[in-house]
C-alpha cells in the first residue's frame, strides 16, 4: 500500500500532468482549489446517495454520471498517474 503522507506530493502531482512545471506556491493554491472543489462534489454526492438509498427513484443514474464525470476531470488533470491503469484494466475485463 502506498504511503498516506508524502512531503513531495505537490511536485509528484506536477510531474504527472503534461503542463509546464510551476512554482511551488502556485502549485499549492492550484492543489488547494482542486482539492476543495472535488471534496465538495464528494460531500454533495454522499448526501444524494443516502437520499437515493431511501428513495431509489430520485436522481435515477445521475449519481453514476457525476462519478464518471469527476473521474474524467481528474484524469485530465493527472493523465500520467499510474492508478489509471487499474481502472482501464478493470473496464477492459468487463467489456
Could you explain the architecture of this structure?
With 95 residues, the protein is an all-alpha fold. The protein has one domain. The chain is built from four helices and no strands. Helix 2 (24-54) packs antiparallel against helix 3. The chain is globular, with a radius of gyration of 16 Å. The two termini are 28 Å apart.
Keywords:
95 residues; mainly alpha; 0% strand
Bulk shape: globular
Overall residue-averaged pLDDT value: 88
Biggest sheet statistics? none
Count of helix runs: 4
What amount of the residues lies in strands?
A: under 5%
Order of helices and strands: HHHH
What oligomeric state is this? single chain
| Helix and strand composition category | mainly alpha
Helix share bin = 55-70%
Number of strands: 0
First-to-last CA distance: 28 Å
CA radius of gyration is 16 Å
Residue windows where pLDDT falls under 50 for at least 5 positions:
none
Domains (count)? 1
Describe the structure concisely:
The protein is mainly α. The protein has four helices and no strands. Helix 2 runs antiparallel to helix 3 (62-77).
Question: Topology, pairings included?
Answer:
Blueprint: H1 9-15, H2 24-54, H3 62-77, H4 83-93
Helix pairs in contact: 2-3
Amino acid at each position: 500500500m502506498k504511503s498516506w503522507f508524502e512531503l513531495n506530493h505537490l511536485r509528484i502531482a506536477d510531474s504527472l500532468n503534461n503542463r509546464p512545471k510551476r512554482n511551488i506556491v502556485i502549485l499549492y493554491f492550484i492543489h488547494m482549489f482542486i482539492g476543495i472543489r472535488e471534496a465538495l462534489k464528494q460531500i454533495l454526492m454522499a448526501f444524494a446517495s443516502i437520499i437515493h438509498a431511501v428513495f431509489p427513484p430520485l436522481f435515477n443514474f445521475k449519481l453514476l454520471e457525476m462519478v464518471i464525470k469527476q473521474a474524467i476531470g481528474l484524469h485530465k488533470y493527472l493523465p500520467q498517474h499510474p492508478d489509471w491503469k487499474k481502472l482501464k484494466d478493470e473496464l477492459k475485463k468487463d467489456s
